Amino acid sequence: MMHMEFAPYILNVAIVPLLSPLLIGIVRKVKAYMQNRAGASVLQPYRDLVKLFTKNEVISEDASWIFRVAPYVIFGITLALAAGVPLVGPLSTYLPTGDILVFAYLLAGGAFFLALAGMDTGSAFGGFGASREMMIAALTEGGLVLSLAGIAFMAGSTNFASIALALSHVSAAAYLPLALLAAAFSIALLAENARMPVDNPATHLELTMVHEAMILEYSGKRLALIEWAAANKLLIFIVVLCNVFFPWGTSVFGIGALVVTFAKIFVAAAGIALLESTIAKHRIFRLPDLLFTSFVISLIAIFIIVV
Question: Which site from 61, 69, 83, 283 is most exposed, i.e. has the minimal number of CB atoms within 10 Å?
């Protein structure tokens, strides 16, 4: 019985890192299709990870234990996040974990270690990348937390599974604030995962990169862990958007719920690809306006809920 109780969490911790590189491959493939290119195979991210794990590492003599440990901590944080989101199985099996405050604090912890690792070697790129990352994280936090708080108000719980169960039976009158909260969370999703228009995941231009600037000093298996953790994080955010904000079709037993979940994840991935193919990256000084929009939309939705 004890093993059955922990089965959903174990499955999550296994499925999220297993499928997250495929998600990145799908996004890249859809982007290539929209740009009239053939593009690489959707399995290319797996090949990239295998290649990195087999390469030797070059570590600066100025690097401390933070630089060496950070990739393992960041990857472990993504696994902890994965355990609490309702991905496989009925929603009722996830009740003990997945608190929105724990979710927010773990995200902050991952960003903190990544920024520390970026600054640890004294690289100019790592320094300005960490500075930009902390600025973006601080501006994103308000919209992210308030969007999660809004659905918590609607459901009367701070647990992801309980929220999803409650939102799967909401009335039509609740669709407007729910859509606003989902929009605010989507903006936070793009910012937290270094996607357009906040950051360009495909560039190494020193004047524009944020996430890539912090990991330029990494190589080999530690770089693989950081890239893998970034893919995990994107999948986790999409799962929260699809199965917590829009939980319809996922509260039943059987393969049907999995099919619905993966279909929603594919639609979200295609939406990210479409967005990144149609807009340009914002200048760093325009990002506060975008991220403040997420904060304001969340406030409006909460006001509608309370009134």
Answer: 61
Report the number of distinct structural domains present in the chain. 1
Strand partners, 159: 99
- Give the tokens for residue 60: 């600066």
pLDDT at 204: 67
Which parts of the chain are beta strand (E)? none
- Whole-structure pTM value: 0.94
**Bond preceding residue 8 cis, omega within 30 of 0:** no
Domain span at residue 19? 2-306
Q: What is the DSSP letter of 245?
A: I
The crossing angle, in degrees rounded to 10, of helices 287-306 and 124-155 is 10
Mean pLDDT of all residues belonging to the chain: 89
pLDDT in tens, 86-123: 887 656 566 667 899 999 999 999 999 999 999 998 88
CB atoms within 10 A of CB 99: 17
